[in-house]
Write a structure and sequence with these properties.
alpha+beta; 4-stranded mixed β-sheet; single chain; Translation Initiation Factor IF3; globular
Length: 88
Amino acid sequence: MDKEKLHQMNADVIIGKRGLEESVVNEVKRRLKKKKYVKVKMLRSTLVAEDSDRKTLARKLADLVDAELIGVKGRTVVLKRKAKLNKL
């Protein structure tokens, strides 16, 4: 799927003023199990609550959910589920 189509889809998860709390991280993980791509929207209050910029917060979220960061456009983040390695 190309980046433009990914940014046109609706946000799956919205992060609010509580920031990256455990329930949000768990919800993103759950959605990544079902879908290959997850779109996350961060409200302005998220950046204030986390005292961070949007790109740093996007990388932190990707690390927490063990996903690949596809892109950040404004306060919207697109994550991709990492491919599982086949064991021989």
